[in-house]
């Protein structure tokens, strides 16, 4: 952090400059902090800075984030399994065509479904699914940006 009067480096949160002796008021400290906020990522309403991770209507403080990871989910798997099971039962019984049709339908659903990826943020309060998207590269980029912000903060 830089003193607004003498431009020398001072400790973050200092209320008095050790170089020129100037007192720093609350407003000046906030302005210095905002000016020094480093941006690691901005895209489609998402912003990762040295102080904050902003996504949709939520803001997470980087200093409160202990770790971040990528999660993946595919809720369609259970549905596909059930359809295949029922199709198998039908194909073993007297309605073979219906059973085979259900199995083919399950395979089509499985192939056409896409996996979703999630940014999972860990804080003292627990884990939060902060963002979910089908674009794996975007999620990876956001997780990398948050990790860089955590490293920068420490």
Describe the structure.
The structure is a single chain. With 154 residues, the protein is an alpha+beta fold. It has 3 domains: 1-36, no CATH class; 37-73 and 115-153, PH-domain like, CATH 2.30.29.30; 76-112, no CATH class. It is built from 4 helices and 7 strands; from the N terminus they run αβββββααββα. The chain has helices at 26-35, 76-92, 96-112, 136-153; strands at 39-43, 46-49, 52-55, 58-61, 65-73, 116-123, 126-133. The strands form 2 sheets. The chain has a 4-stranded antiparallel β-sheet with strand order 1-2-3-4, with helices on one face. Helix 2 (76-92) packs antiparallel against helix 3 (96-112). The protein starts with 25 loop residues before the first helix and ends with a helix. The model has no long low-confidence stretch (mean pLDDT 83).
Give a quick account of the main beta sheet: strands, pairing sense, barrel closure. Answer: 4 strands, antiparallel
| Main β-sheet, spatial strand arrangement | 1-2-3-4
The total strand number stands at: 7
Rounded to the nearest angstrom, the radius of gyration is: 26 Å
Based on CA inertia axes, which overall geometry fits? rod-shaped
| Uncertain residue ranges | none
Overall number of domains: 3
Q: What is the helix content?
A: 40-55%
CATH topology of the largest domain: PH-domain like
CATH level 1 name of the largest domain: Mainly Beta
